[in-house]
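Homework-ish question, so no full write-ups if that breaks the rules, but can someone show me the predicted structure for this set?
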Amino acid sequence: MKVRAIVNFEYPASLTVRNKIREAAARGKRVPMEERGRIAEVVVGEELDAPADLVESWLANGYVQAVEVGNGTQV
Amino acid sequence: MALKSSADVGFLLLGGKSVLAAPLKTINETRERLMEQSDGLGDSDDKWSPVGVGTFEMTQEGFFDSGTNLYHQALEAADPQVLMYAPLGNVIGDHLTGLSAVRTSYAVLPARGAFHKANATYRAETGPEKLGNTRITAHHVARTTAGPTDTASYNWLASSANGGVGYLGVSALTLGGYTSVTVAIRDSTDDITFADLITFTAVTAAPTAERKTVTGTIDQYTLTRHTFNGAGTGQSITFACGLGRN
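A: Not a homework solution, just the prediction itself:
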């Protein structure tokens, strides 16, 4: 989904790392910051294709808003 | 049982000045809820009711040390200054006492055949936040990377909705050609996507300290980021950060 950033934020660019963080969290563990690989930076106003595993939480937490809805209508 | 001793005291920063090494001998931190006697005629026992007002007082006893940015200079300051005190350890997630404190009394005590001692008492101008809700988000240590560099994240186990207060205490700084250092507390709902929560005023000199409030939701995970701005070499910043959630 195409989204537009409302705030500045960052996330680990690698899906593998993100899954590793989720698995660790499920066990009550943490993945050290130095093992999180490249961190993708997103600045306010930037449009990007949101990773499928993150888009719901980004929308729910107000990090981004959707740019296209279903048939491509601009909002 | 998890007993703590004097060796566990992590740091005490007064306006950014690190004064534990004075050395301090005793820190006495007292939090009190004011009560008023509320029984009346005919009551057979006394009753006490909380007025809804809390008081805070901290006393310190140590050796008089007139060195630059040490105990004497820290205690001499009469204006309110940010006080950060880690009684249980210098680890991310450990308890922190943070407040804007006014030093109300300062006694220098020379005595025959002994080192001079210096005692002080502080009361709160603003704060502190509840002890259990205030944690170290960056432990007090020298950091030499130009950054952006993140500390380990801390899991608060749940988000909170009523804002909070961030604390930054910088005890030493070598810019090495850089113009300033930006320190920020960031938060995240999932330990994956982090956004700035509190960005402190860019630091250009040490010692310094800042107390900054934030409103609204604070997410479950937090970390602290420092970034040297500009260009240079041989940089170093020694700071601690804390967050108190309302």
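Now go work out the reasoning yourself. Hint: Chain A touches chain B at residues 7-12, 18, 21-22, 25, 30-33, 54, 57-58, 61, 63 (CB under 8 Å).
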